[in-house]
Every structure is written in structure tokens, then in C-alpha cells.
Write a structure and sequence with these properties.
Layout: H1 3-17, H2 24-31, H3 36-52, E1 76-77, E2 80-89, E3 92-99, E4 104-110, H4 114-117, H5 119-133, E5 143-147, E6 153-157, E7 162-163, H6 170-189, E8 202-204, E9 210-212, H7 217-222, E10 236-237, E11 246-247, H8 256-259, H9 266-282, H10 292-301, H11 315-324, H12 336-367, E12 384-388, E13 396-401, E14 407-413, E15 419-425, E16 432-433, E17 442-447, E18 453-458, E19 464-469, E20 476-477, E21 483-487, E22 493-497, E23 512-516, E24 522-526, E25 531-535, E26 541-548, E27 553-560, E28 567-568, E29 576-581, E30 587-592, E31 599-604, E32 617-619, E33 626-631, E34 637-653, E35 664-666, E36 674-679, E37 685-690, E38 698-702, E39 709-710, E40 718-723, E41 730-734, E42 741-745, E43 753-754, E44 762-766, E45 773-780, E46 783-790, E47 802-803, E48 810-817, E49 823-830, H13 831-835, E50 846-850, E51 856-858, E52 864-868, E53 874-879, E54 883-888, E55 894-899, E56 904-905, E57 909-910, E58 916-933
Antiparallel strand pairs: 1-2, 2-3, 3-4, 4-6, 5-6, 7-8, 8-9, 10-11, 12-58, 13-14, 14-15, 15-16, 17-18, 18-19, 19-20, 21-22, 22-23, 23-24, 25-26, 26-27, 27-28, 29-30, 30-31, 31-32, 33-34, 34-35, 34-58, 36-37, 37-38, 38-39, 40-41, 41-42, 42-43, 44-45, 45-46, 46-47, 48-49, 49-50, 50-51, 52-53, ...
């Protein structure tokens, strides 16, 4: 189209656009009565503008005359008679047609005239069309056939309904997104990529079923992408003689690699899916600018406005969006199946809340003797305002509000290796370091009821609970053990647990104690499985978190202050933890992931009996992961920690002869939590598992993080995967059959089989030849656990296993087998350390066991997770999540070779030649926020 012609089309288009839709036909009758083709071009632009949402997305050089004659209405193509136009798009005009043979309506899409002039292109398209026609999925609009002649036409399923538009309610947005993901998953399994996934290519039928349109047509019609930078050409390429300016995608939904004209794969659909889901939730596009080029610049350079997402968006869904919208395709969510599974889990969380609400309403009706059915109304949302109190780099957490709600005490990073306690006005910006003279870790502060004292946990002088004045004076010890102190209402006592809980629900068997603040007289209230206590306001009960099973699922319980039987407050599968009483004793606030993200809930409760009086209700905050709530005396102010946690796999190049200062490389990225990697024997692959989103599946990837692939695909939670020496199997801890046990599976997901049955099994350790395995297994000879050596290649019932001898007063957990086959290395702890809140899984030292002499030898009094170096003499281990050390098993000399500051590094695993170590690296950012209830 020449520039002058385009100017006329553009002027008429804008003039028509200023008029109401019903007035446009009459206007065009008068303005283009002598130029039917001009009118048709303007009408096509109006259709495309409605579909694209902006005239800026229609290329000015696109020739709108090349697809079909001025009118096909009334034409017959084989058995199909054209009835009426439906619209136009970048890949042709669409008409409603009637199939005279089968008596049904279909959609006819005309194809560009280039097909008639290019036999090779038409032949290729027919091959592609056959592949597309093989897609048989309820969420994909079907292709029925191809009609050729003077106009080439594709016969498609006619989908009645409306195209997608946001914002939508959360449950509806997730359901539509799930169906789109299922459609994409089915297409990707056949190697078909959509390339133009967007709301206008998705319809919802009157029955509520999603139908994805035009799957794979971009490639079928235009062929593979040309290697041109579309970001400089407003998404339009000019192929001179063969094509006249075709839009190969929509700017706001094109992946960065697509916008640059690079080769694309299924990950370009994953990007577009993320854009689409964001729009369904936020009601606006993830990427948009004033011009198409501005939009592409946003795609290539900027992040979406994450704050635009609704506050109730589950953390799983927020994380999914971030994974889908990674600009580096190699870091993007690898498969659409991962997205589908995440959405299904989020739906289960959302549906659980809805079911609870409906059930409560139904029970209320029955209790009232109602004989009619009413649609239950949702609980009124709690109205609140939110403000950020702290924003320093690193961690600020465990806030405690003064009674008047004006002052806040909290713990924060004070340097690379320790935390201090800070006092700050909730409206101020200048915190006072109350423990500035301390070189220890000071954490978990709690204001006394009168606001004059602060209790806190400290590692100073061997550790314990300490108390100091409001401004940091007169520090003194109360106990020599304990974590998470909670004041009694009269300020005379503290409740605490022997187990340390910061953010991760876990089951370390903590005991519940009380202690008098002045005399230090301690009393054990509950023997085991109790953490994070909170004293009720009328000194009747203590609420606490009890972890059930392994891995733990949190639950909120209470127990009378004078002792007695503990009573559950919550008992569903959600992770409920960190309970805090309301000042009047009528509610128990707690943290839970029952709504999808880890957020704040409350339940009406009878303080005297500890019985819940109704179903929990959400107190939704903007936090993706909430922890450590604290209430003011009037109950109107709630301080909490808003936490962002990432845990990715890192690779370290080792030279154990000297300290390592760099040469690290990331294997994974993003905000999903990855844990416990193990390299394959050939060093080419790494296996690890997902801590969250979803929880528990095993994954493998190339050593550089590419080719990420999920190995397990059920609801089981797997932990601590380990490659077999021949690389044919992966063994892990799993709850697949109920109690934890050892299972093995092929790296390709085949051959799943259970290894252990009696007493489970923990920390599998292969012998170098793969003929034996060491594992901690319970229920042997009346002991809780013992280390078994068995053949992992035989059925469990045929085992004649060897049991390692007892080590008096010690608990040994093997984690690595030496290359010469002579020794096991493991973690060791003693009875005294376990009584101080450290259990066998944590370890307080490194030891070895000789398979020849059957003797143990302790190497260090600190550290965890040892791994043998290839020389069978030196052992690498991690200490306190901050540093790697190497110990010489002969001289017992220890050297630090690598350390981090605020991050936490996990168990190291070595390649066979000992030159690379793989481990998880967890980074935590936390700010203090204040909620004011209205």
C-alpha cells in the first residue's frame, strides 16, 4: 500500500473511531461510497483495532488487500457456503460458513494469495495443517480441512462465545488459565507451538469451556521466523518480493527472543501464557507502551507492575508468573505442564477456603433450623491499611509491637555474620541498635507487657534466653537454652521452646517450657513437638505450633498453663504455624498457606477450653510470605515480617589446596526454592528437588541448568536425591506410600520402585560400586534409629542387612562413602546437644566409621553434611550454612575454603573427580510491615 493510500485509510479510520459503533456504517456509506475497497480496508482496521486493543499494534505498512476479494459472502467452497464475516487478523479473514453435508456451522479462514503463487509454500502448509489437524483436545479449536481454489481456505471449528478479558475473580482466572495450560501442554507434546497466544486468541464458550484458537497457524502460514530484530521494526518484517509486511505476533505478548526474530521453542508460549495470566488477574497488560516499539522495549527491558496483581493472588501464582516471564528463555519455566500443576495446587488451596466458608454457612443454617436453601454470602473482608516500616538490605524480622502500637523492636542483620536487636518508632526511620556492643547473634525479641523490658534469644556465652531494658541496658541471662520467648500477661514468666524456628516448618522435637523471669525457675510443660509459644491474655492457655509427620505439616494447638492435655485448634493438611492471641482472647491469629500463599489468618476461639468456635478466616496482606505477627494492646495494629526467599543451585570450582574466593556459577535461577543437588557420575547432569511451588518433585538438568526436566510427577514429597554410581538410578526419601521410605527411579522417570519398608529410611548413601547402601532406618531392636547397610538392588524382604554398632552417647548419620570403599563419613551429635535443641539431623560435628575395624572416629566438634574427596583422605563439609571446610582425616587439621556472608549454603556434593561442588544457596530478604485494621 502506497503512503498516500495509507494516509487516506488512516484518516478515515480515525474519523470512524470517533463515532459510536452503531453510527459507523452510515458514516462510511457517505465517506467511501465511491471506493468500496477503501471502505473495506477501514472496516478491517476497525475489526483489528477491537481485537488488538490499540491502533498502535496494527502495522502501518500492512497491506490489507492481499488476503481475499472484497466480499466472499454467498460464495461456495466445496460443501461450505459463506454466511457472514466474523473478523480479520494477521493470518487472514474469518467468515461463518455452513457445512451442507454435516449440517453444522464452521469458521472459514482465508489464506494469503502468496499460497497460490508459491506451490512449495502451499505444499509445506498442507504438511503443517495435517499436523495441526492431529490436535484433538477439548480446549483447542479443531481444524477440519483445507479448501483450495482461487481463494485458499482453512476450515475450522466455529467457537461461539467471548474472547478473554481481565480482570477476573481469582477462581475464574485460575480455571481459565488451567484450561489454556492443558491445551498448550497437549500441543507441545506434539511439537506444536502457538506463537501468538493472547486473550484475543482464546474464547470462552457459553458452557464455560476455554477454546484456544489458531494453534500453530503462525508457523504453518509464514514458516519459521526470519533472523531479524523485530524490536526495531514494530513487529513487522518486510520480505520484499515474497511477503508484504506481516505481523508475526502481538507486541505485548511476544517473548523477548520472538521480538528479536530469533528461533523460538515452546518457551515462547510459556512467556505468552504468563502475559495472559497476568492480564486476567491484573486487568491490564504486563507490557505496554505508547507505541509498538515502546511496548517491545518494555518486553525486552522492563518488569511488569507486580503491585498491580490482586492482594489475594497466591504466592504460588505470583512465583509462577515470575518464572513464566523470565526474559532469558533458559531461565524460564521449562514446561507448560509445570504451570498447569502449580495452578492446580493453587486451585486446591483456594477451593479449600471456599469449601470451608460454604460449609460454615450451611452448618449455621442447619443449626438455625432453616428449611430453605440460601446462597451463602462470603465473609466480609477485613479492611486495613498497610505501611512498610523497614527497608534495609538483608533481614529485618521477628517484630514485637509495644502495647500502644507506637514502638517496634525487631532483629536485623548487623554485619556479615550476626544479627542485633533494634528499637524503632513505627513512624520513624532511625532505628536504635540495642545490642551494638555484642558480637553474638541476638534474635527473636519480645516486648514485655509493660513495654519496659525486652526478652530475646542470643548465642552469647553459650546461648539461651536473655532480658534487657527497653533501651538495651542491664542485659542478663534467664535460661541457658530456648528460642522464641513469649511473655506471660503479668510479665513474671516466659514461655519458650527448645527448638529454633525461623521461617521453615520443621519437626525437630522441641519441648515447651516456662521460666520465671526473676528467679530463673524453669518447668517443662510439654515433652516434645512444640514450638513458637504464645501466652493467652488471661493466663489460661499457651498456644503453640505442633508439627505432624515428616516432612512436617504445621498445626496450631493450645495447652493449659498449669499443664494437662494439649488440644488442637486446626487439623487440616495446611501448614498452620506461629499462633498469636488477640488482646481480648477471642481470636487466635496464625500464619498459614491454606489460601495458597503463606499469609495471615485468624480463628474465633474459647480461651478457657482452647476450642475453635468457627472456621478460620483470612486476614489478607500484600506479603508473598508472611511470618512473625505481633499485635498491639488494642488489636488494631499488627506488625509482621514480609519475607522473600530464593534458593537456587550453585556450582563451585574447587581447589582444596587453598581458599576459594570465586569461580561460582548458578545452575538455577528465579524464586522457586531448589534444594540438595547431586551431580551424576559423569558430571553432566544434576538432580535436585523443589522445596515449594510445587513441593517435593525431583528434577534433573544439565550441569549448566539447561534442559530442566521433572522426574517424578505425582503428589509425593521427595527429599535428598542421590545418583547411583552407574548413573542409572536416583534414590531419594519419599512419602509416596505413606511413611517416609527410600525409593529409586530412573533419571527419565521410569522404573519407580520402593527400596525400604521397615522403619522408613533417611540419607541414602551409595557404596562406590553400587552394591550396597547405608541409610538411617528406625525400629531396629527397640532403638529409634540405626544405620543399616543393605543391597539396594534386591527386594527388601530378601535383605540380610548389616547394622552398624552403637556408638555410646552418640548419634551417627552417614552421608558419604569413601572412594576406596573403606569408610563412611557422617554427622554426629550427642545426647547433651539434642537436649539443647539440636537433633541428629542437624549434627554438631563430623565423624567417620571404618567398615574394616568397625570403629567410629570423631574429626570435628562442628559442621554437617560431609562429602569425601576422591583421595579418600579429605572430607568437605558445611558449617552453620555459612562456610565450606576441608578436614584431613589423618591429621584432623581443618581449613576453611569458601564462605558467604548473609546467604545460607546447603549440603555440598562433589563430582567424581572432586573439582566441582554443587549446593543450594538460600537468600532471604525480609522487611517489617504494619497493618492497621479499620
Amino acid at each position: 500500500m502506497n503512503p498516500e493510500r495509507w494516509r487516506k485509510v488512516e484518516e478515515l479510520f480515525h474519523a470512524a473511531l470517533e463515532r459510536a459503533p452503531e453510527a459507523r456504517p452510515a458514516f462510511l456509506d457517505g465517506a467511501s461510497s465511491e471506493d468500496a475497497d477503501l471502505r473495506r480496508q477501514v472496516e478491517l482496521l476497525l475489526v483489528k483495532q477491537e481485537q488488538a486493543g490499540s491502533f498502535l499494534e496494527i502495522a502501518a505498512v500492512e497491506d490489507l488487500t492481499v488476503t481475499a476479494p472484497a466480499s466472499l459472502v454467498g460464495r461456495q467452497f466445496g460443501p461450505y457456503r459463506i454466511v457472514s464475516p466474523l473478523g480479520a487478523g494477521g493470518m487472514g479473514e474469518v467468515y461463518r460458513a455452513h457445512d451442507n453435508k454435516l449440517g453444522r456451522d464452521v469458521a472459514i479462514k482465508t489464506l494469503p494469495r502468496e499460497f497460490a503463487r508459491d506451490p512449495e509454500r502451499l505444499a509445506r502448509f498442507r504438511r503443517e495443517a495435517r499436523t495441526l489437524a492431529s490436535l484433538n483436545h477439548p480446549n483447542i479449536a479443531a481444524i477440519y480441512g483445507l479448501e483450495t481454489g482461487d481463494v485458499d481456505c482453512l476450515v475450522l471449528e466455529l467457537v461461539e462465545g467471548e474472547t478473554l478479558r481481565g480482570p477476573l475473580p481469582l477462581d475464574k482466572a485460575l480455571e481459565y488459565a488451567r484450561q489454556i495450560a492443558e491445551a498448550s501442554e497437549a500441543a507441545h507434546e506434539k511439537g506444536i507451538i502457538h506463537r501468538d497466544l493472547k486473550p484475543n486468541n482464546v474464547k470462552v464458550t457459553p458452557q464455560g469451556r476455554v477454546k484456544v484458537l489458531d494453534f500453530g497457524l503462525a508457523k504453518a502460514i509464514w514458516g519459521p521466523e526470519e533472523n531479524q530484530d523485530l524490536s526495531q521494526l514494530a513487529t513487522v518484517i518486510s520480505l520484499e518480493s515474497s511477503l508484504t509486511g506481516r505481523v508475526l505476533g502481538t507486541p505485548g505478548y511476544m517473548s523477548p527472543e520472538q521480538a528479536r526474530g530469533k528461533d523460538v521453542d515452546k518457551r515462547t508460549d510459556i512467556w505468552a501464557f504468563g502475559c495472559l495470566l497476568y492480564e486476567l488477574l491484573a486487568g491490564k497488560r504486563a507490557f505496554r507502551g505508547e507505541t509498538a516499539s515502546d511496548t517491545l522495549a518494555a518486553v525486552l527491558e522492563r518488569e511488569p507492575d507486580w503491585q498491580a496483581l490482586p492482594a489475594k493472588t497466591p504466592a504460588k501464582v505470583r512465583e509462577l508468573l515470575r518464572q513464566c516471564l523470565q526474559k532469558d528463555a533458559s531461565r524460564r519455566l521449562p514446561t507448560i505442564a509445570d504451570a498447569r500443576r502449580t495452578i492446580e495446587k493453587a486451585q486446591r488451596g483456594w477451593s479449600g477456603w471456599r469449601v470451608a466458608t460454604v460449609t460454615a454457612a450451611a452448618l449455621a443454617l442447619l443449626a438455625a433450623g432453616a428449611t430453605w436453601v440460601l446462597k451463602p454470602k462470603p465473609a466480609a473482608a477485613v479492611r486495613a491499611e498497610f505501611s512498610r516500616v523497614t527497608s534495609q538490605p538483608g533481614v529485618e524480622w521477628f517484630p514485637s509491637l509495644s502495647r500502644d502500637g507506637k514502638w517496634l523492636v525487631y532483629a536485623a542483620d548487623a554485619g556479615p555474620v550476626n544479627r542485633h536487636i533494634y528499637l524503632q518508632s513505627v513512624k520513624g526511620q532511625n532505628p536504635l541498635d540495642l545490642t551494638r556492643d555484642s558480637t553474638a547473634n541476638d534474635d527473636q525479641p519480645a516486648f514485655s507487657p509493660d513495654g519496659e523490658r525486652i526478652a530475646f534469644r542470643s548465642s552469647r556465652d553459650g546461648g539461651g534466653i536473655f532480658v534487657m531494658g527497653r533501651t538495651g541496658e542491664a542485659v542478663r541471662r534467664v535460661t541457658r537454652l530456648g528460642f522464641n520467648p513469649s511473655w506471660s500477661p503479668d510479665g513474671a514468666q516466659l514461655a519458650f521452646s527448645t527448638d529454633n524456628i525461623e521461617l521453615y516448618p520443621q519437626n525437630n522435637g522441641g519441648e515447651l517450657w516456662t521460666v520465671t523471669v526473676n528467679a530463673g525457675e524453669a518447668r517443662r510443660l510439654l515433652d516434645g513437638d512444640a514450638t513458637l509459644p504464645s501466652w493467652s491474655p488471661h493466663t489460661q492457655r499457651i498456644a503453640f505450633t505442633r508439627w505432624r509427620g515428616k516432612p512436617a505439616k504445621g498445626g496450631v494447638w493450645t495447652i493449659p498453663v498449669k499443664g494437662g492435655t494439649a488440644a488442637p485448634v486446626t487439623g487440616d493438611p495446611a501448614r498452620d504455624w506461629n499462633p498469636v492471641w488477640s488482646p481480648d482472647g477471642k481470636y487466635l491469629y496464625f500464619v498459614s498457606d491454606r489460601g495458597g500463599s503463606m499469609n495471615l489468618w485468624r480463628v474465633p476461639i474459647d480461651e478457657a477450653s482452647g476450642k475453635a468456635l468457627a472456621e478460620p478466616e483470612p486476614i489478607t496482606t500484600p506479603a508473598a510470605y508472611l511470618a512473625h505477627p505481633s499485635l498491639s494492646a488494642d488489636g488494631k495494629h499488627i506488625a509482621y515480617s514480609s519475607v522473600l526467599i530464593t534458593a537456587n543451585i550453585q556450582q563451585l570450582t574447587l581447589d582444596t589446596s587453598k581458599a576459594v574466593t570465586g569461580d561460582t556459577a548458578w545452575v538455577t535461577s528465579g524464586s522457586r526454592l531448589w534444594s540438595t543437588p547431586d551431580p551424576s557420575p559423569d558430571g553432566e547432569w544434576v538432580v535436585f528437588y523443589s522445596l515449594t511451588q510445587p513441593e517435593g518433585p525431583l528434577y534433573v538438568s544439565h550441569r549448566d541448568g539447561l534442559g530442566l526436566r521433572q522426574v517424578t510427577n505425582d503428589m509425593a514429597i521427595n527429599r535428598v536425591p542421590r545418583w547411583s554410581p552407574d548413573g542409572k538410578w536416583i534414590v531419594s526419601i519419599s512419602d509416596r506410600s505413606g511413611p517416609m521410605a527410600l525409593w529409586k527411579i530412573g533419571p527419565d522417570g521410569s522404573g519407580l520402585q520402593q527400596l525400604t519398608e521397615r522403619g522408613g529410611g533417611y540419607y541414602p548413601t551409595w557404596s562406590p560400586d553400587g552394591s550396597r547402601m547405608a541409610a538411617a532406618i528406625g525400629g531396629i531392636g527397640g532403638r529409634d534409629t540405626a544405620v543399616w547397610l543393605f543391597d539396594p538392588n534386591r527386594p527388601w524382604k530378601q535383605e540380610t542387612a548389616e547394622v552398624l554398632p552403637d556408638w555410646p552417647s552418640m548419634h551417627f548419620t552417614p552421608t558419604s562413602w569413601s572412594a576406596d570403599g573403606e569408610y563412611l563419613a557422617g554427622m554426629v551429635d550427642d545426647a547433651e546437644s539434642r537436649g539443647n535443641g539440636n537433633n541428629g539431623s542437624a549434627g554438631i560435628g563430623i565423624a567417620t566409621y571404618s567398615l574394616r575395624s568397625h570403629k567410629y572416629e570423631r574429626l570435628t566438634n562442628f559442621g554437617q553434611w560431609p562429602a569425601w574427596l576422591p583421595d579418600s583422605r579429605h572430607v568437605l563439609f558445611v558449617a552453620e550454612g555459612k562456610a565450606f571446610f576441608v578436614v584431613d582425616t589423618r591429621s584432623k587439621q581443618v581449613r576453611k575454603i569458601f564462605s558467604v556472608a548473609r546467604d545460607v549454603i546447603g549440603p555440598p556434593r562433589l563430582t567424581r573427580n572432586g573439582t566441582k561442588a554443587y549446593y543450594s544457596r538460600r537468600m532471604t530478604e525480609s522487611d517489617i510491615w504494619l497493618m492497621t485494621l479499620k
